[in-house]
């Protein structure tokens, strides 16, 4: 498979997974959390499909497309663990989270996702959904939407 095909499949899985997760949480109250603002693509999609939810965003840097800058009050700029702890301390519970942190080095990314999993759990509403580009631990893995090949994107219930 060409790298272009691979990238297209990953982005399609990401979008379809977020759409699926939004449907799963219609009866679960809580906020939304995008872990990894990056260019702002997934944040932009989340705010389009979940117009009535507060969307928190964590990233150590603000370097997104100018049209995708989150409101200052909802952008937690800093390292993941202290920013997740800040969210937990303020009693904000998350119904839908998207995990898209990464260095681009698979081993490091998997280790970081495992290390952060308990802290992510601390901000989730019981029954909330996590859509993730990396394997997480301590959650119930779900099949996710039809059509996404196993392992391409991952789905969990808190
Ligand atoms: C793959 S990009 C996110 C892409 C984004 N979801 C999008 O659609 O444009 C990963 C982002 O996570 C951030 N990041 C990675 N590890 C982090 C950590 N431990 N704490 C805070 N931010 C982190 C990086 O700065 C980077 O902007």
TrEMBL record:
A GO term for molecular function: methyltransferase activity
One Pfam family named in its UniProt record: Methyltransf_17
Matching InterPro entries: Methyltransf_put, SAM-dependent_MTases_sf
Keywords from the UniProt entry: Methyltransferase, Transferase
Biological process, per Gene Ontology: methylation
Domain of life of the native organism: Bacteria
Gene3D superfamilies xrefs: Vaccinia Virus protein VP39
Protein name listed in UniProt: Class I SAM-dependent methyltransferase
Phylogenetic placement of the source organism: Bacteria, Pseudomonadati, Pseudomonadota, Alphaproteobacteria, Rhodobacterales
């Amino acid at each position: 498979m060409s790298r272009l095909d691979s990238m297209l499949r990953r982005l399609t899985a990401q979008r379809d997974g977020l759409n699926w997760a939004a449907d799963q949480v219609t009866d679960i109250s809580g906020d939304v959390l995008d872990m990894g603002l990056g260019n702002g693509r997934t944040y932009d999609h989340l705010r389009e499909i979940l117009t009535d939810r507060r969307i928190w965003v964590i990233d150590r840097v603000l370097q997104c497309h100018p049209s995708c800058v989150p409101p200052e009050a909802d952008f937690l700029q800093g390292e993941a663990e202290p920013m997740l702890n800040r969210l937990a301390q303020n009693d904000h519970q998350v119904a839908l989270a998207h995990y898209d942190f990464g260095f681009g080095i698979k081993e490091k990314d998997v280790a970081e996702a495992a290390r952060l999993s308990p802290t992510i759990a601390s901000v989730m509403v019981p029954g909330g959904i996590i859509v993730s580009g990396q394997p997480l631990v301590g959650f119930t893995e779900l099949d996710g939407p039809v059509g996404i090949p196993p392992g391409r994107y991952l789905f969990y219930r808190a």
